[in-house]
């Protein structure tokens, strides 16, 4: 076990989610007689869920900051209809339509951010209102009708990367992306070792690093083959590329920028954040506005896939996105969660949907199972919360951090715990 | 005082918490019909004693016996003590702000009618009780709308509704303005005239002198003495001597200060309570700090020291009314915490867990939290730089943790305090305001914190220490300001300061 942990490095928690996802995929692969891991099915899973995953990226920041956004489905829908009508009636090109959609998202986000951050209305209420408000606007603007979108716009939701260059037997763009991903892994492993050496931290044995690179190479290679070997003209789908770019950007924002640290600080301890110079209002405004922009993008991706914008687009999306975030290890009380975790949480839900469907399980039982998965995932978190940062499935794979540190716990803190007004024995 | 028999006797009460003996053989004798004051420094054990009495700490969790109205009693919770007529009113009022006065008075003690609650009867009884305590308001007024002074009266009316025979008031005037305090004291006299016995915990010696019949002094968990005020000869000096009476131990590192120029000045700082309009938390407060100087702020709880510090630190408390801050002779405005940090001010709050730390963070994340730009290059926070910074502090401050990737929630109080200090040292401040820097940490860790404070001063920083422990201030500070009811009442050089002198200044006694 210890060697596996060394292989996984510090991020055992996230790896354990990945392991759960892999186990799930293999289980369905076995149960369906190999229908899950086919190029067409894999491409469909990405195309059919990318917009939810885009929402999950925004939602995790909202939830880390201690809020919730129920309006994302309606925001997506109203953006979709505005963009669809603008392209139909004004004849604007598809990319102007995309920019218009993002602008609509920004305006809506500013509206919701204003109420949450500056007026102090809880996100739940603000976005519940937004859920009704923007759904109504979608149906008012679109007159409850379905408005088709042009072909180029549809590429965004269901398109594939073009074929080019020599015949490698695979889609060359997909191949290139795979090579790029692998190069990134090699480079980050190298950097990790270099910085550990420089800082005088424990450098993992070369064997461990090599093993890690090899495993990553096998996985990336397989995925490249899976997505690239479909029928001619298909590839890793365009919405998947959009998603991947967003994941990289937002993972960086959340973990490596001042804005990201402020989001965690506000959710973790608002008062302490305020006394550390964090502008709480700006931070809350940012997460709400960002969420609406991503919701607008998700709406456009969906419209592209559906080839038209309709009056019931996006119903129930908020719940799927929220479920993904919590399965991905975020805490209801805020302060905890990761972009990568949420995307993996979303993929767990997507694979569950897909696998159960392929097994011929009805949508009734699929919902039952998804509900139970969500409940159990959060139950694990609650159990694990005792050890500091909660971890999903950490019960099965306890991370290094959750144990063996009893030596430094607060033994010299004489404050007794009494359920009274003054918790300390003061006179 | 015709009736001299005791309504209450607490005999040899001992109460231990893990690692701390909060009460050690404490005895208390309260005569029927008197107002009995309990005095002592912060942490002396007054509140703990009252919690033993009222059943918050049930029978069996303490040693000793309680004799009430001639019988030994063994309360198992607050309900059972209230059934016996002992009602405690805590400093933090236990009222529901969104309910009416009537509803609050009878909460948990509802007036039953044939079908549910008889609100007509409750309202008319509430009116009677309100008249008894001199509360002029509609019985239907919401408690949140009536102000702290009248809320205190609602609490007393509520106690009277429960047929109270022994009323315990914990710091009843701490949150009140002078008029309301006066009214409350008058009310207590009136209730005494009608035969009610009260126990009052207070830091305000002038009030105690004015109203109490006897005084029990508690110090470090021991009952020192009981003074009979009606017998005469008890004044504030006498009480202070009883409260302090202990010697300074040599638990401070040796230190020769190198004190430079005045660089930080506050003038006429006036701040209003954010919740009680018209009540001033800081009244025309002025002080200054020199480079290399450790300046103490002494005051009783609620005197406004923390509030003064926080309002200076980016107006993070209260409503700023007037006043000026000068740094190196130049007037600066610091309306936000960020601007205060940029002006070289650091404030380490008294409550580590609720105001200082994000308990979800690691040591490394905590250390950089107040100065992220320092480790950010090209919009990216460098984890290497963060690690090096945090690791440096872990070594130099002796934080006991296996690595800086350890969660701060797992550290002991002393180590958490060191991490917090590191967080603020990382902002490269010129002035550090440390609010109760050693509260709740053990003696050894205290010594290390003291040494650290002295190092900071020696590096030319100004250090302000707010502490409720007078020996700590006397042992550490080059100069000590006293604060009483929002006013700076004294500026005493450390070498001239005595506990008695400080106590006099911080309780508003005439010098």
Q: Which properties best describe this structure?
A:
heterodimer; A: 427 residues; mainly alpha; ABC transporter involved in vitamin B12 uptake, BtuC; two-stranded antiparallel sheet; B: 511 residues; alpha/beta; Rossmann fold; 6-stranded mixed β-sheet; 26% strand
Topology overview:
The complex is a heterodimer of chains A (427) and B (511).
Chain A: H1 2-8, H2 12-31, H3 39-64, H4 72-89, H5 94-119, H6 123-141, E1 147-148, H7 151-158, H8 172-199, H9 206-228, H10 238-256, H11 258-268, H12 270-274, H13 280-306, E2 308-309, H14 317-327, H15 339-358, H16 363-384
Antiparallel strand pairs in A: 1-2
Chain B: E1 6-17, E2 20-31, E3 35-39, H1 46-54, E4 63-68, E5 71-73, H2 78-83, E6 86-89, H3 101-105, H4 119-133, H5 147-161, E7 166-170, H6 178-193, E8 197-201, H7 205-211, E9 214-219, E10 222-228, H8 236-244, E11 262-272, E12 280-290, E13 294-298, H9 305-312, E14 319-327, E15 330-332, H10 337-342, E16 345-348, H11 352-356, H12 363-368, E17 376-377, E18 380-381, H13 383-396, H14 413-425, E19 431-435, H15 443-458, E20 462-466, H16 470-476, E21 479-484, E22 487-493, H17 499-506
Parallel strand pairs in B: 3-8, 3-9, 6-7, 7-8, 13-20, 13-21, 16-19, 19-20
Antiparallel strand pairs in B: 1-2, 1-4, 4-5, 9-10, 11-12, 11-14, 14-15, 17-18, 21-22
Helix pairs in contact in B: 4-5, 8-17
Characterize this entry briefly:
Chain A is an all-alpha fold and 427 residues long.
